[in-house]
Amino acid sequence: MPETEEFVGIDVSQDVLDVSASGGSTWTVQYDEEGLAQLTSRLQTLPVRLVVLEATGGLETPVTAALVTAGIPVAVVNPRQVRDFARATGLLAKTDRLDAQVIARFAEAVKPTPRPVPDDQARELEALVARRRQVVEMVVMETNRLQRALPSLRPVIQAHIDWLRGQREQLEAQLDQVIKRSPVWRAREQLYRSMRGVGPVLARTLIAELPELGTTTSKRISALVGLAPFNRDSGKMRGKRTIWGGRKCVRNTLYMATLSAIRSNPAIRAFYHSLLARGKERKAALVACMHKMLIILNAMARTGTVWQPAPPVPTLSA
């Protein structure tokens, strides 16, 4: 009789990993090289169907990489999904061990799709993109502080802003080098940037943080980014369809690119104004344009076809 497949949840903390398998076994290992070796060795003795971890700002990356290297299927999920699942099933108590058990139950019930883990070069690109985003956010915060600061403090804040801008330029130079080292990434960046409104920031964010682009369906890619609208209906009440979840950093970058595309891309601009003419709110129209851009980029990546604006409709002469 074949062994029952097991779903495993791992709660990641700074120093230890709490592990729980759907078969009932639980254990803890230290979060270091020796602990990761113990973890992978033990999991390789089990009929593991899937291991699930929560995204924890990069803390989960070494664990995920170790599991993938050992040939163990792993998925990294949004913590909000697990929290909502715990509330829905009445699992309200919270310890690291209980969290691991909840993640294991979530894995068994939901069966999220394993996400491929990037290699060292892809992780470097992702880290550089993330760091650039952090530096840009710090520039914005310091600029806001500068406007409210006492005159005696403004030179200090301005000096910090100038330093941060220098850091941003260095990171962008590093990003250029990383992209240039990969012919695939160079071609992908050129492909994305052929679409008006898509600049280097969005192109590199898509390469680093949305590697599934071009490999899956429009519906799936929309859900990954958090642009798939969800119904809010109950009985006779029909609520507004809303978006949530997904990869926030990709969505935020796409938002800024869409603002540019509405000004510079005739197709997106025409679509946006057609939605306004039909009574759509500006925010809803903007989100629809984001969704349209993402679907077009997904098709471009799947077929390797550069952006082709629709030809003008000929008018009949009198």
Descriptive notes:
The chain is an alpha/beta fold and 318 residues long. It has 3 domains: 6-110, 2-Layer Sandwich (Nucleotidyltransferase, domain 5), CATH 3.30.420.10; 119-181; 195-309, no CATH class. Helices cover 57% and strands 10% of the residues. It has helices at 33-43, 61-69, 79-88, 96-110, 120-148, 154-180, 183-193, 200-209, 218-225, 248-264, 266-277, 282-303; strands spanning 6-12, 16-21, 26-30, 48-54, 74-77, 233-234, 237-238. The strands form 2 sheets. It has a 5-stranded mixed beta sheet with strand order 3-2-1-4-5. A two-stranded antiparallel ribbon has the order 6-7. Strand 4, helix 2 and strand 5 (74-77) form a beta-alpha-beta unit. Helix 5 runs antiparallel to helix 6 (154-180), helix 5 packs across helix 8 and helix 10 crosses helix 11 (266-277). The protein is globular, with a radius of gyration of 23 Å.
Tags for this entry?
7 strands; 3 domains; Nucleotidyltransferase, domain 5; single chain; 12 helices
